[in-house]
């Protein structure tokens, strides 16, 4: 009799669990952006959120939680319930670089359930249009000869723009003070105000200022030129070898989120990323749409963590 009751209870549990999954989502979904508005993380999230919401039949809310190189927003994600209702637009900084850059983090690699890569973009070396340089070589000379101009900005410590600039300084044998901001939006605004000399930024957040003539683009970090800036050389063409960097952004959920929910989220994100208008908008930002499987994205992140561990070690960089 006990065996019958146990079997019945188990069957009912499976039935109710399956039913609950079939009904998911039953409420709105939040995607945390671990950066200020205006940067690539924010832009990409807002582009796909509405389409994902339509696919899932619920509103997808974007919530900016900037600060500490993406750590504040990332910490909020890992504290959330693993029910699929709170996600994050993870990126190369908090989900790859930070592990080797910081001795201590309030999260670990195992705290995440990868969903899919959303977009990958090159970085671009930019200066204010008023800065009296037109090439990378001229910038190197200008910075080396003018102490008051030995400054560079970024979207935050440990993010790919910061690390790209550190790599650039090493390759160019330059010294400059790092001025971090809480996201690309504030960093772009500061460069527009001539508050520092140069920045290596994710292309999407600086592209409007380049196209409007407020920034001068000196080089891109991709291995080939980008269609949106055909006259801008690659770093290699500009005389800086071994300087190829691709920034990436992707959706993650807290570890423990049911596979069925992760798969539903992946399906919704993939549908959004395969839509022609999203692909067109991403291409217009100099980016490439993702859409890989959760397993493929997990392997990609693992490879990126190893790659940046080697880079940080070679650069002898550490953050408090």
From TrEMBL:
Residues 1-22 form the signal peptide. The keyword Ribosomal protein does not apply. CDD domains: PBP2_Bug_TTT (cd07012). Keywords: Signal. InterPro entries: BUG (IPR005064), Bug_dom1 (IPR042100). It comes from the Bacteria. Belongs to the UPF0065 (bug) family. This is MFS transporter. It comes from Advenella faeciporci. The lineage of its organism: Bacteria, Pseudomonadati, Pseudomonadota, Betaproteobacteria, Burkholderiales.
């Amino acid at each position: 009799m006990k065996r019958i009751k146990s079997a019945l209870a188990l069957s009912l549990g499976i039935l109710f669990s399956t039913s609950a999954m079939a009904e998911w989502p039953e409420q709105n979904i939040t995607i945390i952006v671990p950066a200020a508005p205006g940067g690539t993380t924010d832009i990409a999230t807002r582009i796909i959120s509405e389409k994902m919401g339509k696919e899932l039949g619920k509103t997808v809310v974007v919530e900016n939680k900037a600060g500490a190189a993406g750590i504040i927003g990332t910490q909020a994600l890992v504290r959330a319930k693993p029910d699929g209702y709170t996600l994050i637009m993870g990126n190369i900084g908090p989900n790859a670089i930070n592990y080797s850059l910081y001795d201590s983090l309030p999260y670990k690699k195992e705290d995440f359930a990868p969903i899919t890569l959303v977009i990958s973009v090159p970085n671009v070396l930019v200066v204010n249009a008023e800065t009296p340089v037109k090439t990378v070589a001229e910038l190197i000379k200008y910075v080396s000869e003018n102490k008051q101009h030995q400054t560079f900005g970024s979207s935050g410590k440990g993010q790919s723009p910061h690390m790209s600039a550190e790599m650039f300084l090493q390759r160019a044998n330059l010294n400059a003070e790092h001025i971090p901001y809480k996201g690309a939006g504030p960093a772009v605004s500061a460069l527009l105000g001539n508050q520092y000399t140069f920045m290596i930024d994710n292309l999407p957040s600086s592209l409007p200022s380049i196209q409007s003539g407020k920034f001068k683009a000196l080089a891109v970090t991709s291995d080939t030129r980008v269609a949106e800036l055909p006259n801008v050389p690659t770093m290699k063409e500009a005389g800086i070898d071994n300087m190829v960097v691709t920034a990436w952004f992707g959706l993650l959920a807290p570890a423990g989120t049911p596979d069925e929910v992760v798969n539903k989220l992946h399906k919704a994100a993939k549908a959004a990323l395969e839509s022609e208008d999203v692909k067109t908008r991403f291409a217009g930002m100099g980016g490439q749409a993702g859409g890989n499987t959760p397993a493929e994205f997990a392997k990609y992140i693992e490879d990126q963590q190893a790659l940046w561990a080697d880079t940080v070690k070679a650069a002898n960089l550490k953050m408090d």
